[in-house]
Amino acid sequence: MKGKHNILTLFATSFMSFMQLLDASIVNVAIPSLTKDLHVPMNRAEWIVSVYLIMICMLLLFWGRMADQIGYIKIFQTGTIFFTLGSFICALSPSLYLLLFGRIIQGIGASMSMATNIGIIAMIFPMSQRGRAYGINSIIAQLGNISGPGLGGLILGVLSWHWIFIINIPIGIIVYIYGRFMFPKDKKRTLEIAYDWPGLVTYAIAIATFFVSIYMGQDIGFSNRNVIVTFVVSLIVWLVFFYIEEHTESPLINLHIFKIPRLTLSLVSALLVFSIGYYANVIMPFYLTDFRSLSTSFTGLIMMAIPFANVIAAPIAGYFTDKYNAATVSIVNLFVYAVPLIFLVWFSGHVSLVIFTIMLLLLGIGNGGFQNNPMIMGYAPQEYQGIAGSLAALFRNLGMGIGVSLATTSLYYGMSVQSHHQVNYYPQNHPSWFLSGMHFAYFTALVLLIVSVILVYMIIRINRKETRQKAEQKRA
Question: Any idea where the Major facilitator superfamily (MFS) profile domain is (predicted)?
């Protein structure tokens, strides 16, 4: 009976992660509808996606540390309430500003739940079962991230954009009620909360000003003085944050973890791969619905090729990771990832949808086969396992936020170069501008992929060197 209860609790926490990561990507496919219904340009509507991810990035580490002192269950349940309330506000929003407020509330709730679900799993499962439990949680959560545009397209094919938020409400209520009666009780925590508040404040300001500078640049140009000043402020605050973390007894992020080369390389490569994955979420809805004039439901059906391939590729790649190693499997899948990216840099706009769908399948295989979690957790020493897990979640969400920024910025830049003036919207009367922007955007994605390949190859080199050293020690 206890085993059944544990499985239900696992699925309750995992499904909340699914919904929260789904909401990070499902809105992308609704952006064309939102720009028309709310009468805002495309770059302003992208804030609906970005503000949610920014809030998660700002608060994820904070709630993780708070949970250690207050209790995982309390933070998770409070996060469920905030996420559900934010979804309710978004569903009823008549304007962009109220919708953004709802997304902020959602982001606060999502950061609380994301920071604690792994801790709850550790509470309810013995050590011998945690690996499988973490694996199930990771697969369910990742499905939420990559299936958003596809599910969003199917929903929008028959309902209005409000329903992509309405569906969260009953799920949030059910998970909260289940947790109220069935989650384990938190262990007694300290009454005195100790925290690196200067680190949190500078970190939050650095994250916020970095993303604000990017989106201001999209709107008014990157040469604008206000944009440059905001970016410089972000850079200065980052330097202050690193100084604080080096000189505090209980830092928000223990910077010593970045002195482990393979772990740092794994984190950065994961950030880049998640950024690349978000290009499809941002660009494909406009390509399929506006450029190709497909219905939103058909767009959703085509985009489901990515999560479909991901679900198949992930466990297969996991099997080969156990047999060989995560870095080798990852670099092979990065070369698979390169095929559709090269195609998207050069393809003609009206290519066969069959061929296009095959390319999306390859995107899903490349993404699903990249073994970021096994690399990160595998190269983290035992004493750093907790912070490594938090950093894995942080770099994943940072990758999503940066992916939105890079995809939109490169898309707008490519369109602006083609049109010889600033373009930050879909050019209805000039589809060739959009295609040029899409080509340029995926060229930047290809550059990111090349950097990722180099980073993973460096990990493989370190692995080989370590293997040789061990062999020499045995012979000696």
Answer: 9-464
| Longest CA span, the chain | 74
Q: How far is Cα 73 from Cα 60, in angstroms, rounded to an integer?
A: 15
Non-local (6+) Cβ contacts of 472 within 8 A are none
- Kindly state the average pLDDT of the residues 183-206: 75
d(CA 204, CA 60): 10
What beta strand segments (E) does 127-205 contain?
none
Average pLDDT, the chain: 82
Average pLDDT over residues 364-378: 80
Helix (H) or strand (E) segment spanning residue 358: helix 353-369
Distance CA(87)–CA(26), nearest Å, equals 13
Would you list the DSSP string of 447-473?
HHHHHHHHHHHHHHHHHHHHHHHHHHH
CA distance 331 to 458: 11
Cβ-in-10-Å burial (0-12, 13-18, 19+) of 382 comes to exposed
Q: Which residues contact 298 (CB under 8 A, 6 or more apart)?
A: 153, 157, 288
Tell me, what amino acid is at 349? G
pTM: 0.78
Q: Which two tokens stand for residue 254?
A: 């223990």
**CB pairs under 8 A, 24+ apart, for 429-433?**
431/290, 431/291, 431/349, 432/349
Handedness of CA 206, 209, 211, 214 (dihedral sign): negative
* Element of type H or E holding 305: helix 305-323
Tell which residue, 116, 117, 112, has the closest CA to residue 56.
112
Please name the amino acid found at residue 124: I
Is residue 121 a contact partner of residue 67, using CB atoms and an 8 Å limit? no
Q: What's the pLDDT tens digit per position in 153-182?
A: 778 777 888 888 888 888 888 888 887 877
The rounded distance, in Å, linking the Cα atoms of 443 and 176 is 44
Q: Do 380 and 263 touch, CB atoms closer than 8 A? A: yes
CA distance to 13, 178, 215, 226, per residue, from 412 (Å): 38, 45, 11, 19
**Which tokens hold the place of 190?**
């300290």
Among 233, 235, 259, smallest CA distance to 246 is for 259
Most confident of 128-132, 234-238, 252-256: 234-238
